[in-house]
Amino acid sequence: SIVVGFLFGFQTSVDPQLAYIHLVGIHPDHRRHGVGKRLYESFCEACREHGCERLKAIAAVGDENAVRFHLALGFSAEEVPNDAGPGRSGMVFTRPL
User: Fold this and answer.
1) Is it the case that residue 26 has pLDDT exceeding 90?
2) N or C: which end of the chain has fewer CB within 10 A?
């Protein structure tokens, strides 16, 4: 079997009700086939089982594919100044679980 995608996320230690998706990767030949959605769904289920109530993810400003993907999954999107470092805005996606 081969790996076609991965999701690296965790329940935060500062706020155990918050889960954070740090990084997602999908093999180019398998994009737009529901792999990312299934990874997110599986991660959300595990997070709910561990008491999480909210989910957060980030992307670079201007990454319209990430914005469309997260909005389709029910996230709200906000450009946050300095989220990616001093003087660097980031897209922050949040959603209740």
Assistant:
1) yes
2) N
Residue 17 has pLDDT above 90, yes or no: yes
CA 41 to chain centre: 11
Q: What are phi and psi of 53, to 5 degrees?
A: -120, -15
Please count the CA atoms within 13 angstroms of the CA of 60 that sit on its side-chain side: 3
CA–CA dist 71, 66 (Å, integer):
8
Helix (H, G, I), strand (E, B) or coil at 48: helix
d(CA 86, CA 97): 30
Rounded CA separation 85/13 (Å): 21
